[in-house]
Amino acid sequence: MTTDATTPAGALSGLRVIEMGTLLAGPFCGQLLGDFGAEVIKVEPPGKGDPMREWGQEKAHGKSLWWPVIARNKKSVTLNLREAAGQEIVRELIRDADFLLENFRPGTMERWNLDYQTLAEINPRLIMIRVSGFGQTGPYSRRAGFGAVGESMGGLRYVCGDPRTPPSRMGISIGDSLAATFACVGALSALHYRERTGRGQVVDSAIYEAVLNMMESLITEYDAVGYIRERQGSILPNVAPSNVYPTKDDKLHLIAANQDTVFRRLATAMGRPELADDPRYSSHTARGQRQQELDDLIAEWTRTLTQEQLIALMDEHGIPAGGIYRAPEMLEDPHFKARQAIIEVMHPELGSLKMQNIAPKLSLTPGQVRAVGPDLGQHNDEVYRGLLGYDDSRMEALRAQGII
Question: Is domain 242-324 classified as CATH 3.30.1540.10?
Answer without folding.
Answer: yes
